[in-house]
């Protein structure tokens, strides 16, 4: 079956480039924690593909949990109201926490998540993002571990979506803002 790419897109990072970068990030994170156990908090749904690949690159003790955070709704390309849902049973007091997200854009989402997790008294909180878009930052947050930096582009693929679509692309592609796909 052939993967269907949106029209008017440019490949920014191929699947092979992503795999190489994820491997490098896994080694960097593993070295940082030096065998200490870490609780990985995946930001759903965008980080699902990334966190699965990243965890397989880290040979260390870890737990996995998830948090649902969304500020893009429907076909929106600009963030709206931020919604964060955390598992009420999450016990991270005294644990090292690594929040993993697909993209660090305005920073509002990861800043809010970091604040929510910090209230639960972890030993440490670090942030990992596959893609960083610093030109759009409005919140005071930086990724401790980052894969790629991009200019102000709307991107899809490798977990990133447009209206719930294109998460399954093996590459990360930029969409032309003047020719966004029409989706039913």
Structure characterization notes:
With 184 residues, this protein is of the alpha/beta class. The chain has a single domain, classed as Rossmann fold (3-Layer(aba) Sandwich), CATH 3.40.50. It is 21% helix and 30% strand. It contains three helices and nine strands; from the N terminus they run E-H-E-H-E-E-E-H-E-E-E-E. The strands form two sheets. A six-stranded mixed sheet has the order 4-3-2-5-6-7, sandwiched between helices. Helix 2 links the parallel strand 2 and strand 3. It is globular and about 50 Å long.
Topology of this structure?
Layout: E1 9-13, H1 15-33, E2 38-44, H2 48-55, E3 62-70, E4 83-86, E5 96-104, H3 108-118, E6 124-132, E7 145-149, E8 154-156, E9 172-175
Helix pairs in contact: 1-2
């Amino acid at each position: 079956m052939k993967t269907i790419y949106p029209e008017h897109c440019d490949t920014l990072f191929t699947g092979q480039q992503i795999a190489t970068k994820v491997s490098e990030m896994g080694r960097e994170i593993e070295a940082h924690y030096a065998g200490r156990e870490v609780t990985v908090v995946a930001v759903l749904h965008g980080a699902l593909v990334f966190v699965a690949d990243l965890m397989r690159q880290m040979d260390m003790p870890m737990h996995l949990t998830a948090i649902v955070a969304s500020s893009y709704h429907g076909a929106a390309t600009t963030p709206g109201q931020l919604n964060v849902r955390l598992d009420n049973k999450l016990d991270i007091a005294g644990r090292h926490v690594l929040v993993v997200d697909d993209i660090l854009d305005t920073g509002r989402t990861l800043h809010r998540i970091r604040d929510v997790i910090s209230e639960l008294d972890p030993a440490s909180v670090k942030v990992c993002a596959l893609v960083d878009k610093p030109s759009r930052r409005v919140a005071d947050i930086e990724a401790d571990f980052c894969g790629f930096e991009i200019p102000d582009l709307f991107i899809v693929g490798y977990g990133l979506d447009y209206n719930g679509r294109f998460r399954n692309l093996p590459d990360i592609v930029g969409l032309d803002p003047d020719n966004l796909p029409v989706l039913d």
